[in-house]
Design brief:
binds ligand Z5A, five-stranded parallel β-sheet, 5 strands
Length: about 210
């Protein structure tokens, strides 16, 4: 039996880390075995790549380097965690996946969509999320939350226009693929966002 692959997406500070546990709980309560993971990361190698990607002390990185690092970590994640879990019938809940690459490296950094598509085909070999929960809030709301936590990583030091392009890319991808995406308003209080996520999950997975 094959499991299902669910991803959470959105600009930084929108509440993915806060909500990922509630998503997993909803699925466990419905009787599914759930693996919670994240990108970049999710494996020993992937977490090291993540540290490099987020390191503010490094000199500016070429956008292409960033893209290749993200997909290198993803190849390892698919091989070691995602594909084995799905093959064992587990449900995988992943905090960010390839939509983040289209949004950040494509929309944010301006890399061509065609480059990302080529790597997606090479690395994923047809595997796509069954459901993507896009947490959406205005940039000033999400960035305000993230920046209230203090000094940010290499991405968090970017300006608001960078995140506006990322949000636009996410919303365009959701509009182009309504069968896979559910857009959740992430502006209200966390309990309200959890309730909306629960409703969307139960509806999509029934
Ligand atoms: N990246 C990439 O470039 N390309 C790729 O392909 C992939 C990723 C996969 C990962 O860093 C970075 O990698 C990411 C994109 C890039 N960079 N950015 N930006 P990360 O995991 O550290 O970044 P993140 O995913 O954006 O995490 P985050 O900043 O922690 O955001 P979040 O997980 O969505 O938010 P949160 O931590 O749950 O909440 C933020 C704060 O708001 C926190 O204090 C909460 O208590 C508070 N919060 C949460 N929800 C609410 C509500 N509803 N109301 C009020 N306050 C709230």
């Amino acid at each position: 039996m094959s499991g299902r692959f669910i991803t959470l997406e959105g600009i930084e500070g929108v509440g993915k880390t806060t909500q990922v546990g509630a998503v997993a709980e909803t699925l466990r309560a419905a009787g599914h075995a759930v693996v919670v993971t994240r990108e970049p990361g999710g494996t020993a190698l992937g977490e090291r790549v993540r540290a490099v990607l987020l390191d503010r002390a490094l000199p500016a990185m070429a956008s292409m380097t960033e893209l290749l690092l993200v997909f290198a970590a993803r190849a390892e994640h698919l091989d070691k965690v995602i594909r084995p879990a799905l093959a064992a019938g587990q449900w995988v809940v992943c905090d960010r996946f390839t939509d983040a690459t289209y949004a950040y490296q494509g929309g944010g950094r301006g890399l061509s969509k065609a480059h990302i598509e080529r790597l997606e085909i090479l690395v994923q070999d047809g595997l796509q999320p069954d459901l993507t929960l896009l947490l959406d809030a205005p940039v000033e709301v999400a960035l305000g939350r993230a920046r209230a936590r203090g000094e940010g990583d290499r991405f968090e030091t970017e300006r608001a226009e960078f995140f506006a392009r990322i949000r636009d890319t996410y919303l365009a991808r959701a509009a182009a693929d309504p069968g896979r995406f559910r857009i959740i308003d992430a502006s209200p209080a966390p309990e309200m966002v959890s309730a909306a996520l629960r409703r969307a999950l139960l509806q999509a997975c029934e």
